[in-house]
Amino acid sequence: MTVKQLRGIGLAGALVMTVGASQAQAQTSPPATTPIANPPGWAELVGTLGDLPARMLAKLTPEQRADPQIQQEVVRFALSALAHATLDALGQDGDHPVFMPAIGQVISIGQPNADTVYRTAKITPGGSYRLRGKRGSVRMARVAQVAPRPRDKVDANGMAVLGPPRIVFDINALQVDAQGNFDVIASPVRPAGYTGDWWQLQPDTNALMMRWVASDWGKEIDPTISIERVDGPIVRPRPPAALLEQRLRAMPGDITFSAMMFLDHVARLREQGVVNTLKVFDLALAGGLAGQFYYEGAYDLKPDEALIVEAKVPTKCAYHSVILTNELYETTDWYNNQSTLNDAQSRTDPDGILRVVISAKDPGVANWVDTSGYPTGVIQGRWTECDSQPVPTVRKVKVDQVARSLPSTTPRVTPEERERIIRDRRSALQQRPLW
Fold first, then answer.
1. How high is the pLDDT of residue 3?
2. pLDDT tens-digit map of 114-127
3. What is the CATH number of domain 265-430?
4. 145: closest CA among 227, 205, 225, 229?
């Protein structure tokens, strides 16, 4: 139909003719084909996600299940488990590895430590790898060997049992050049004729987990690191369909494991009566770092209440910290709140006692840990490479009684100083290479 003809019949007429032509064409078209099926493995992933929040809620108390706030926080936790597994499926390749973000502020499963950057690289058991980069100046920079995690064995804390402790490598112990660069080979057997730094990999190691810890976030320099396999093809071919499907099919198990493992940890502490008090937390079989001593306990506070946590600081200590988690064992948001303290951020009283106040309201003392809107949760602390491992005492007082309950020498801060401290910690954390 020409432009002149279209003008003659008008827009409405043209539309009627077009619809009619379409209907006629539809009547002569072949019948619809069989619906297209999703690729193998996708239905299993979707099925796992479909009722995951409900399965997670089933591990909580009836009161928590009925709480709309907790319900949505469970969904957030489920999304964290999904994100963790998705990053693994998309980015991890044992023959062409890279250290990828593991857990932290955004993916807060596994109760990450606020001072630690966690990254993981998958490797192929039996392969040889070269790691290089700049050492930086953080006090701890460790690379742990990881083997396939058994999902049917847990310890008394509900943590997965990983078996005997595995060798952990220390980046700070490596040789560096004048610019601070390191270069190390990691392999089952030392390469013939190689005289440089070497790390021996155990036969079943299928991943390397890097943890570097900084206390003074604005001053300590984080390491940089790369990893490559040196006994395989230098280029990466197109991943075959079977490998992609294998990764997809691994996701439901990985998601479920991450989402479910820690959910009832806080409830276990309450059942044991460890509320507003602290006990030893043994992670020796669950992947805890050698030389690191943990303590923890549930807390339960009203808005006008505070806990005073006190301990004699060890004479020799590489690092110590106190963090909070919520009821789902997610670390409380430490970017936007003073909800954690480490040895560089806290102040020890002249008598050698570290006194930390935990409350919802700022009591005006330097060593305040903010519950950040969570009236219940967990207090967890750690002493690393210290000559003693005290479990702190805990006493509950009213917030307005905190000042008179502490020595006059306990450092205080003004509201203006607190605001500056929180803004500075947020800036320093965002400038760390977390992603």
1. 44
2. 999 999 999 999 99
3. 2.60.120.1600
4. 205
Q: What per-residue confidence (pLDDT) applies to 291?
A: 80
Spell out the domain ranges in the chain: 43-260, 265-430
> Tens digits of per-residue pLDDT, 146-177?
998 765 555 555 555 555 667 899 999 999 99
Global pTM exceeds 0.90: no
pLDDT at 337 over 60: yes
Identity at 311, one-letter amino acid code: A
Order of all β-strands in the sheet with 279-281: 279-281, 292-300, 376-386, 317-325, 340-342
CB of 117 closer than 8 Å to CB of 433? yes
- The residues that bridge with 101 in the sheet, in sequence order, are 119
pLDDT the model gives residue 154 = 56
Q: Please work out, in degrees rounded to the nearest 5, the angle formed at the alpha carbon of residue 149 by the alpha carbons of 147 and 154.
A: 135
Q: Which residues pair with 312 in a beta bridge?
A: 353
DSSP state of 400: G
**CA-to-CA distance for 198 and 187, rounded, in angstroms?**
8
Minimal CA–CA distance to 135: which of 98, 179, 167?
179
CA neighbor of 122 nearest in space, from 159, 152, 147: 147
Q: Are 169 and 131 in contact (CB under 8 A)?
A: no
| 184 vs 199: CA distance, rounded Å | 7
Instruction: Name residue 92's amino acid.
Output: Q
Residue with tokens 């064992």: 329
Please state the rounded mean pLDDT for residues 6-32: 50
Asked if residues 142 and 117 have their Cβ atoms less than 8 Å apart, the reply is no
The whole-angstrom separation of Cα 77 and Cα 195 is: 46
Distance CA 84, CA 87 (A): 5
Between CA 91 and CA 371 the distance in angstroms is: 35
